[in-house]
Design brief:
7-stranded antiparallel sheet, 13 helices, 26% helix, globular
Length: 691
């Protein structure tokens, strides 16, 4: 790997023979676990400007129609997250000279609050070619991490590291995106993130479709360029894009059935009720998935772009026989993508119903792929891959010039991507939406075997028994296995809730700098042995705070909670009454706990506190810093995903908390921003002397 310094450049062809498609990754970490940023890509012409609004890609406009740019989304890392972007350089239009890769923060956050700002570029096999770290971030709310640019027929990378105090709007303005402060329509403004209450700005390019952008704060521009001082302006909002071409999504509420009674079952394109064996499930699941990938370009591209595949004509095959020694091997599937006369190929190995991948089998496919010039082997199972804990161990022959990448995909990730497309982002036509809906119905059928992670593993029962009997000691490897299963479960919960809401949902990792995945899990396992609890935090876009999940194995209770801060200088009783109004439709058994300068204060159920909000205030007048809202639920006893299982109980607890607490808080917050706040209660007036 080539380590870059600020301002340095290098030709991609000098680092890899296969750099036509690359994966750019932007990463950062936060010891507090609450750091986040959004990546963006701008395509620039020879004049250093975008050709129109279609050349600006960010989280609400994630991919180019020609496949040259595809934002792949975030994946959690130790202490932070990594945002990946697939760049098919062979598909970049000839009049585009540069691709600028940037990231921005919002809500007053700055990059100086994050650690380990870094950009890497990998070829399609997954081998990292170069890395660039930014160590001088401070007050900037947007950063250009790097750019890829043409020099004749060659593509080169330049490490930029230029920051903007004016955020994404200032960066966009520099590259020819016009910013209009006159405001966006009311509906778009209503769903924008919390800001100053002003109108959302719009970017207007040559395509003519308005895209809301943050109003440009009149602060000094990029650190490396002089800017004329202007009056202060509101803090930036996150952009909300509207695409020029309408996409098809399915309605959230199903149409009324024409069946005579509820026992009738609708005809399905992919029936699952007659599957009897694991082999039948694997064959059917592979065929169903690969056929839909080939017929729905948006979906096929969404899954393969993460593996370095170009955007092109896709064909898929199942049960292919390939020679290997004396006995031919039959991988479950083959994917072939053609673009501009070049072919990208991958072997697919599928497992369903909780069956584990076998190292020997995957090793055989890696060897076959290397000999036949395939680019990748893709494994697909219910398991969720974790950093530092590979699902299968394979050996790579370093003497071979041709490199084969090994990638893993969870059935939960497949369902997540299908749901994001048909419920939130949209596809090209109604037939594609229907195909994806049929795929999703098949994956969710109880007999398909494609339900995602659904077993806490063989160590779950012994660890629970050891905690109950107080015989579990620190350093027990079974506790580490349970922690790994817990982490897989939380990642799957994030995938599921993110797909349902159409929002980014990520697990939060609070770790010290330099901590590895293995050491972090070992520390969590020791705490599990000592305290008998598993804990995790989720960050969901649009939520008023971080959602905490605690599974207490000693009491058999699940606790889901969120902490709501109190505005500085707010009157305590006003804050308590406002909270009761926001929770008017929340469950009566919701626990409300006052946080007094970081410590626990008065507490009670919502049922008791609604008539008397003042009961939640400390009697000694201590300063309130916030409120903790919690719901409790009994957790399942078994290790699996049965109705009485632990995994099902965690899913249900998170669903109930988000729909009955978080959603009401978010709605109340939006209503508050649109209406004036009530007058606060007057501060107590001291009685006159002698009264």
């Amino acid at each position: 790997m080539r380590e870059m310094t600020k301002g340095a450049n290098v030709g991609l062809a000098d680092l890899s023979d296969d750099a036509g498609t690359v994966i750019a990754s932007l990463s950062w970490s936060s010891t507090a676990g609450d750091g986040d940023a959004d990546v963006s890509v701008l395509l620039l012409d020879a004049g250093g400007k975008v050709r129109g609004d279609a050349d600006f890609f960010y989280y609400n406009n994630p991919s180019a129609a020609d496949g040259s740019v595809h934002l792949l989304g975030k994946t959690p890392t130790d202490g932070g997250s990594e945002d990946r972007i697939s760049l098919d350089l062979t598909a970049v239009p000839e009049d585009v000279e540069r691709l600028v890769v940037a990231a921005s923060r919002y809500g007053g956050s700055r990059f100086g609050d994050l650690d380990d700002l870094r950009m890497t570029v990998a070829d399609r096999s997954g081998e990292v070619l170069l890395g660039f770290s930014i160590g001088d971030a401070s007050v900037e709310s947007a950063f250009i991490f790097g750019e890829l640019y043409r020099r004749g027929t060659e593509w080169k990378y330049r490490a930029v590291g230029q920051g903007y105090e004016t955020g994404l709007a200032g960066l966009a303005t520099d590259f020819g995106i016009d910013v209009d402060d006159e405001g966006e329509n009311e509906a778009a403004d209503a769903i924008a993130d919390p800001g100053d209450g002003g109108g959302a700005a719009t970017a207007v390019g040559s395509a003519g479709a308005a895209q809301p952008l943050p109003a440009v704060p009149a602060q000094p521009g990029p650190k490396t360029a002089a800017a004329e001082e202007q009056p202060a302006a509101p803090a930036p909002k996150r952009p909300r894009a509207r695409t020029a071409k309408k996409k098809v999504t399915l309605p959230a509420v199903a149409t009324k059935s024409l069946a005579e009674n509820d026992s009738w079952r609708a005809a399905r394109l992919f029936p699952a009720s007659n599957l009897k064996s694991d082999k039948e499930r694997e064959v059917r699941a592979t065929s169903v998935l690969l056929s839909v990938m080939a017929q729905v370009p948006e979906f096929g591209r969404r899954l393969t772009a993460a593996f370095g595949a170009p955007a092109g004509r896709m064909q898929t095959f199942t049960e292919v026989s390939l020679p290997h020694g004396e006995t031919p091997k039959r991988p479950d599937g083959v994917i072939r993508v053609e673009r501009a006369g070049k072919l990208w190929t991958a072997l697919v190995e599928t497992k369903t119903n909780g069956n584990a991948l076998r190292s020997e089998q995957v090793q055989n496919y890696m060897d076959i792929a290397a000999r036949r010039g395939y680019e990748a082997v893709i494994t697909l199972s219910n398991d969720v891959a974790l950093e530092g804990s590979p699902l299968v161990e394979v050996k790579t022959d370093g003497r071979r010039k041709h490199k084969v990448a090994l990638w893993h995909l969870s059935w939960a990730e497949v369902a997540h991507q299908a749901q994001m497309l048909i419920r939130h982002e949209g596809v090209g036509n109604a037939a594609h939406a229907w195909l994806l809906q049929e795929l999703l119905h098949y994956l969710q059928h109880e007999n398909s075997g494609c339900h995602g992670f659904q077993n806490m593993g063989p160590s779950w029962v012994p660890v629970r028994n050891g905690i109950d009997e107080e015989t579990l000691s620190q350093g027990d490897p079974r506790a580490v296995e349970v922690v790994e299963s817990w982490e897989r479960l939380i990642r799957q919960v994030c995938l599921r809730i993110g797909g349902e809401l159409g929002q980014k949902a990520l697990p939060v990792q609070r770790t010290q700098r330099g901590t590895t995945a293995l050491s972090r899990r070992a520390a969590h396992a020791d705490r599990l042995c000592e305290e008998g609890r598993l804990a995790a935090e989720l960050r969901v876009d649009g939520s008023p705070g971080t959602i905490t999940i605690v599974a207490d194995l000693r009491t058999g209770k699940l606790r889901t909670s969120v902490e709501i801060p109190v505005p500085e200088g707010a009157y305590p009783l006003t804050s308590a009454k406002r909270l009761m109004r926001q929770l008017a439709e929340a469950p009566a058994d919701l626990h409300v706990e006052t946080l007094v300068e970081g410590q626990s204060g008065p507490r009670g159920t919502l049922e008791r506190l609604r008539p008397e909000p003042g009961d939640v205030l400390p009697r000694d007048g201590s300063r309130i810093t916030g409120f903790r809202l919690s719901l409790f639920k009994s957790m399942g006893a078994t290790r699996g995903n049965a109705e009485t299982g632990f995994i099902r109980s965690v899913d249900n607890a998170v669903d109930r908390f988000h729909s009955h607490v978080i959603a009401h808080l978010a709605q109340a917050e939006r209503r508050t921003r649109r209406t004036p706040s009530p007058e606060p209660e007057s501060a107590p007036v001291p009685a006159p002397a002698g009264a």
